[in-house]
Amino acid sequence: MSKKALCVGINNYPGTANDLSGCVNDAKDWATALKTKGYDITMLLDDKATRANMVSELTKLVTGGAKGDSLVFTYSGHGSWIPDDDGDEPDGRDEMLCPYDINRQQYLVDDDLADIFAKKAEGVRLHFISDSCHSGSVAKFAAIGPEIAQQPKVRFLPPETFLPKEKIMAARKVAGARVSHQKYPALLAAACQDVQYSYDASFNNRPNGAFTYFALQELNKPQNETLMQWMRAIRTHLPSAAYPQTPRLFGSTAAKRAPMF
Fold first, then answer.
1. What is the DSSP letter of 35?
2. First vs last Cα of the chain: how many Å apart?
3. What is the CATH number of the domain that holds 130?
4. Whether the Cβ atoms of residue 46 and residue 98 lie closer than 8 Å to each other
5. Which terminus of the chain is less hemmed in, N or C, by CB atoms within 10 Å?
6. Which H or E element spans position 115?
7. How many structural domains compose the chain?
8. How far is the C-alpha of 215 from the C-alpha of 116, rounded, in Å?
9. Which helix (H) or strand (E) holds 219?
10. DSSP string computed for 48-97
11. Residue 115 lies in a domain
Protein backbone atom coordinates (compact mmCIF):
# COMPACT_ATOMS: atom_id res chain seq x y z
CA MET A 1 0.00 0.00 0.00
CA SER A 2 1.35 3.43 -0.91
CA LYS A 3 0.46 6.88 0.38
CA LYS A 4 0.77 9.97 -1.79
CA ALA A 5 -0.36 13.57 -1.44
CA LEU A 6 -0.50 16.70 -3.56
CA CYS A 7 -0.45 19.94 -1.54
CA VAL A 8 -1.27 23.19 -3.34
CA GLY A 9 -1.00 26.67 -1.84
CA ILE A 10 -1.45 29.98 -3.68
CA ASN A 11 -0.94 33.38 -2.07
CA ASN A 12 0.01 35.32 -5.19
CA TYR A 13 -2.73 36.09 -7.72
CA PRO A 14 -1.19 38.45 -10.29
CA GLY A 15 -3.48 41.02 -11.81
CA THR A 16 -6.34 40.56 -9.34
CA ALA A 17 -5.37 42.77 -6.34
CA ASN A 18 -6.65 39.89 -4.18
CA ASP A 19 -3.49 38.24 -2.85
CA LEU A 20 -3.70 36.03 0.24
CA SER A 21 -1.23 35.37 3.06
CA GLY A 22 -1.73 31.95 4.64
CA CYS A 23 -2.12 29.54 1.73
CA VAL A 24 1.54 28.68 1.18
CA ASN A 25 1.91 28.04 4.91
CA ASP A 26 -1.18 25.83 4.74
CA ALA A 27 0.31 23.70 1.97
CA LYS A 28 3.63 23.37 3.78
CA ASP A 29 1.88 22.50 7.05
CA TRP A 30 -0.28 19.82 5.39
CA ALA A 31 2.83 18.43 3.69
CA THR A 32 4.68 18.22 7.01
CA ALA A 33 1.74 16.57 8.79
CA LEU A 34 1.10 14.04 6.03
CA LYS A 35 4.80 13.23 5.65
CA THR A 36 4.87 12.12 9.30
CA LYS A 37 2.08 9.70 8.39
CA GLY A 38 4.13 8.14 5.64
CA TYR A 39 2.92 10.08 2.60
CA ASP A 40 5.12 10.94 -0.36
CA ILE A 41 4.52 14.64 -1.00
CA THR A 42 4.30 16.77 -4.12
CA MET A 43 3.86 20.51 -3.61
CA LEU A 44 2.77 23.26 -5.98
CA LEU A 45 3.22 26.76 -4.56
CA ASP A 46 2.30 30.13 -6.10
CA ASP A 47 3.60 30.38 -9.70
CA LYS A 48 4.08 26.60 -9.89
CA ALA A 49 0.35 26.12 -9.26
CA THR A 50 -0.83 26.93 -12.76
CA ARG A 51 -3.92 25.21 -14.11
CA ALA A 52 -1.80 22.99 -16.36
CA ASN A 53 0.46 21.92 -13.49
CA MET A 54 -2.46 21.32 -11.13
CA VAL A 55 -4.28 19.18 -13.70
CA SER A 56 -1.10 17.27 -14.55
CA GLU A 57 -0.08 16.53 -10.95
CA LEU A 58 -3.60 15.76 -9.76
CA THR A 59 -4.18 13.39 -12.68
CA LYS A 60 -0.84 11.71 -11.94
CA LEU A 61 -1.82 11.36 -8.28
CA VAL A 62 -5.25 9.86 -8.98
CA THR A 63 -4.32 7.54 -11.85
CA GLY A 64 -1.20 6.33 -10.03
CA GLY A 65 -3.19 4.82 -7.18
CA ALA A 66 -3.94 1.10 -6.86
CA LYS A 67 -6.35 -0.79 -4.63
CA GLY A 68 -5.50 -0.19 -0.98
CA ASP A 69 -3.61 3.05 -1.62
CA SER A 70 -4.42 6.31 0.17
CA LEU A 71 -4.32 9.61 -1.74
CA VAL A 72 -4.76 13.15 -0.42
CA PHE A 73 -5.20 16.39 -2.36
CA THR A 74 -5.07 19.59 -0.30
CA TYR A 75 -5.85 22.99 -1.79
CA SER A 76 -5.49 26.39 -0.13
CA GLY A 77 -6.27 29.44 -2.21
CA HIS A 78 -9.15 31.34 -3.69
CA GLY A 79 -12.35 29.67 -4.79
CA SER A 80 -14.92 31.19 -7.12
CA TRP A 81 -17.41 30.37 -9.87
CA ILE A 82 -18.20 31.10 -13.48
CA PRO A 83 -21.55 30.90 -15.30
CA ASP A 84 -22.36 27.32 -16.28
CA ASP A 85 -22.33 26.94 -20.07
CA ASP A 86 -23.42 23.31 -20.49
CA GLY A 87 -26.64 23.28 -18.46
CA ASP A 88 -25.59 20.67 -15.88
CA GLU A 89 -25.76 23.01 -12.85
CA PRO A 90 -29.21 23.81 -11.37
CA ASP A 91 -27.88 27.07 -9.95
CA GLY A 92 -26.33 28.18 -13.24
CA ARG A 93 -22.79 28.15 -11.82
CA ASP A 94 -19.65 26.07 -12.18
CA GLU A 95 -17.78 26.31 -8.88
CA MET A 96 -14.02 26.25 -9.14
CA LEU A 97 -10.57 26.44 -7.63
CA CYS A 98 -8.50 29.42 -8.74
CA PRO A 99 -5.07 28.55 -10.17
CA TYR A 100 -2.18 31.01 -10.17
CA ASP A 101 -2.89 31.94 -13.80
CA ILE A 102 -6.60 32.64 -13.38
CA ASN A 103 -6.01 36.16 -14.72
CA ARG A 104 -5.38 34.44 -18.07
CA GLN A 105 -8.79 32.72 -17.88
CA GLN A 106 -7.28 29.45 -16.69
CA TYR A 107 -10.11 27.95 -14.62
CA LEU A 108 -10.23 24.65 -12.73
CA VAL A 109 -13.97 24.04 -12.42
CA ASP A 110 -15.90 21.34 -10.57
CA ASP A 111 -16.50 19.43 -13.82
CA ASP A 112 -12.73 19.23 -14.38
CA LEU A 113 -12.17 17.91 -10.86
CA ALA A 114 -14.98 15.37 -11.18
CA ASP A 115 -13.49 14.06 -14.44
CA ILE A 116 -10.07 13.64 -12.84
CA PHE A 117 -11.40 12.06 -9.64
CA ALA A 118 -13.47 9.60 -11.68
CA LYS A 119 -10.21 8.06 -12.95
CA LYS A 120 -9.53 6.67 -9.48
CA ALA A 121 -9.13 2.90 -9.39
CA GLU A 122 -11.54 0.84 -7.31
CA GLY A 123 -10.41 0.42 -3.73
CA VAL A 124 -8.33 3.61 -3.62
CA ARG A 125 -9.05 6.03 -0.77
CA LEU A 126 -9.10 9.59 -2.09
CA HIS A 127 -9.42 12.62 0.19
CA PHE A 128 -9.85 16.19 -1.04
CA ILE A 129 -9.22 18.90 1.60
CA SER A 130 -10.26 22.32 0.34
CA ASP A 131 -9.52 25.46 2.37
CA SER A 132 -11.20 27.89 -0.01
CA CYS A 133 -14.53 29.49 -0.82
CA HIS A 134 -16.73 28.19 -3.58
CA SER A 135 -19.57 30.65 -3.26
CA GLY A 136 -20.78 33.96 -1.93
CA SER A 137 -20.99 37.53 -3.11
CA VAL A 138 -18.17 40.03 -3.24
CA ALA A 139 -16.60 40.69 0.18
CA LYS A 140 -13.26 42.12 1.16
CA PHE A 141 -12.98 41.66 4.89
CA ALA A 142 -14.57 39.74 7.76
CA ALA A 143 -15.35 40.71 11.35
CA ILE A 144 -12.44 41.13 13.74
CA GLY A 145 -12.10 38.84 16.75
CA PRO A 146 -10.03 39.53 19.86
CA GLU A 147 -7.32 37.01 18.92
CA ILE A 148 -6.71 38.41 15.44
CA ALA A 149 -3.82 40.75 14.79
CA GLN A 150 -5.20 41.90 11.45
CA GLN A 151 -8.36 41.65 9.44
CA PRO A 152 -8.70 38.24 7.79
CA LYS A 153 -9.53 38.10 4.11
CA VAL A 154 -12.06 35.74 2.64
CA ARG A 155 -10.77 33.15 0.20
CA PHE A 156 -13.29 34.04 -2.46
CA LEU A 157 -12.23 35.66 -5.71
CA PRO A 158 -15.11 37.66 -7.24
CA PRO A 159 -15.71 36.63 -10.88
CA GLU A 160 -15.49 40.28 -11.95
CA THR A 161 -11.77 40.25 -11.12
CA PHE A 162 -10.85 37.66 -13.75
CA LEU A 163 -13.71 37.26 -16.25
CA PRO A 164 -13.41 39.02 -19.61
CA LYS A 165 -15.71 42.02 -19.90
CA GLU A 166 -18.10 40.33 -22.29
CA LYS A 167 -18.85 37.59 -19.70
CA ILE A 168 -19.34 39.76 -16.62
CA MET A 169 -22.98 40.54 -17.43
CA ALA A 170 -23.75 36.81 -17.70
CA ALA A 171 -22.11 36.28 -14.31
CA ARG A 172 -24.21 39.01 -12.70
CA LYS A 173 -27.40 37.29 -13.86
CA VAL A 174 -26.63 34.23 -11.71
CA ALA A 175 -24.82 36.07 -8.89
CA GLY A 176 -27.67 35.67 -6.42
CA ALA A 177 -28.22 31.97 -7.00
CA ARG A 178 -27.78 29.49 -4.20
CA VAL A 179 -24.84 27.18 -4.87
CA SER A 180 -25.37 23.46 -5.38
CA HIS A 181 -22.56 21.15 -4.30
CA GLN A 182 -20.74 19.08 -6.88
CA LYS A 183 -20.61 15.36 -6.06
CA TYR A 184 -17.11 13.95 -6.38
CA PRO A 185 -15.95 10.31 -6.28
CA ALA A 186 -13.82 11.37 -3.31
CA LEU A 187 -14.31 12.33 0.31
CA LEU A 188 -14.32 16.13 0.51
CA ALA A 189 -13.37 17.97 3.69
CA ALA A 190 -14.55 21.52 2.98
CA ALA A 191 -13.57 24.57 5.00
CA CYS A 192 -17.08 26.03 4.90
CA GLN A 193 -20.62 25.50 3.72
CA ASP A 194 -21.58 26.36 0.16
CA VAL A 195 -22.97 29.78 1.08
CA GLN A 196 -20.16 30.78 3.45
CA TYR A 197 -16.61 32.07 3.18
CA SER A 198 -13.34 30.43 4.16
CA TYR A 199 -11.00 32.79 6.00
CA ASP A 200 -7.36 33.70 5.49
CA ALA A 201 -6.34 34.31 9.10
CA SER A 202 -3.32 34.74 11.38
CA PHE A 203 -2.38 32.80 14.53
CA ASN A 204 0.56 33.78 16.71
CA ASN A 205 1.59 36.29 14.01
CA ARG A 206 1.78 33.52 11.39
CA PRO A 207 -0.67 33.46 8.45
CA ASN A 208 -2.82 30.35 8.03
CA GLY A 209 -6.25 29.37 6.89
CA ALA A 210 -8.59 29.16 9.87
CA PHE A 211 -9.78 25.73 8.79
CA THR A 212 -6.29 24.37 8.15
CA TYR A 213 -5.01 25.66 11.48
CA PHE A 214 -7.70 23.91 13.53
CA ALA A 215 -7.81 20.82 11.30
CA LEU A 216 -4.10 20.22 11.89
CA GLN A 217 -4.48 20.91 15.61
CA GLU A 218 -6.98 18.04 15.81
CA LEU A 219 -5.33 15.71 13.31
CA ASN A 220 -3.26 13.55 15.65
CA LYS A 221 -5.38 13.55 18.79
CA PRO A 222 -6.07 9.93 19.83
CA GLN A 223 -9.79 10.49 20.36
CA ASN A 224 -10.21 11.44 16.70
CA GLU A 225 -9.95 7.96 15.22
CA THR A 226 -12.27 8.47 12.25
CA LEU A 227 -12.76 11.28 9.75
CA MET A 228 -16.19 12.01 11.22
CA GLN A 229 -14.73 12.36 14.72
CA TRP A 230 -11.98 14.59 13.32
CA MET A 231 -14.52 16.87 11.67
CA ARG A 232 -16.60 17.06 14.85
CA ALA A 233 -13.47 18.11 16.73
CA ILE A 234 -12.71 20.82 14.17
CA ARG A 235 -16.23 22.12 14.62
CA THR A 236 -15.59 22.75 18.31
CA HIS A 237 -13.42 25.63 17.01
CA LEU A 238 -15.42 26.67 13.92
CA PRO A 239 -17.64 28.51 13.40
CA SER A 240 -16.62 31.23 15.83
CA ALA A 241 -17.33 34.94 16.18
CA ALA A 242 -14.05 35.65 14.40
CA TYR A 243 -14.46 33.01 11.69
CA PRO A 244 -18.13 32.33 10.91
CA GLN A 245 -17.50 29.29 8.72
CA THR A 246 -18.83 25.77 9.26
CA PRO A 247 -16.57 22.98 7.95
CA ARG A 248 -18.29 20.02 6.30
CA LEU A 249 -17.56 16.46 5.24
CA PHE A 250 -19.06 15.33 1.94
CA GLY A 251 -19.04 11.67 0.95
CA SER A 252 -20.49 8.31 1.82
CA THR A 253 -21.23 7.33 5.41
CA ALA A 254 -18.71 4.51 5.12
CA ALA A 255 -16.00 6.95 4.02
CA LYS A 256 -16.80 9.36 6.84
CA ARG A 257 -16.53 6.53 9.39
CA ALA A 258 -13.25 5.25 7.95
CA PRO A 259 -9.98 5.57 9.89
CA MET A 260 -7.92 8.73 9.59
CA PHE A 261 -5.50 9.18 6.71
1. H
2. 13
3. 3.40.50.1460
4. no
5. N
6. helix 110-117
7. 1
8. 25
9. helix 210-219
10. G--HHHHHHHHHHHHHT--TT-EEEEEEES-EEEEE-SSS--TTSEEEEE
11. yes
Q: Residues 226-237: what's their mean pLDDT?
A: 97
DSSP for 145-201, written as a single string: PTT-SSPPEESB--GGGTS-HHHHHHHHHTTTPPPPPPP-SSEEEESS-TTS--EEE
Residue 174 located in a structural domain: yes
Residue 224 pLDDT: 94
Q: Please write the tens of the pLDDT for every residue from 87-140.
A: 544 445 678 899 999 999 999 988 899 899 999 999 999 999 999 986 322 222
Specify the length of the chain in residues: 261
Q: Could you list the active site residues?
A: 78, 133
Residue 261 covered by a domain:
no
Rounded to the nearest angstrom, the gap between the alpha carbon of residue 34 and the centroid of all alpha carbons in its chain is 16
Beta bridge partners of 43: 7
Which residue segment(s) compose the domain that 115 sits in? Answer: 3-256
59 exposure class (CB count in 10 Å sphere: 0-12, 13-18, 19+): middle
Average pLDDT, rounded, for the chain:
85
The pLDDT tens digits of the residues spanning 175-228 come to: 555 444 445 568 889 999 877 889 999 999 999 999 999 999 999 899 999 999
Instruction: Give ∠ CA 3-216-102 in degrees, rounded to 5.
Output: 75
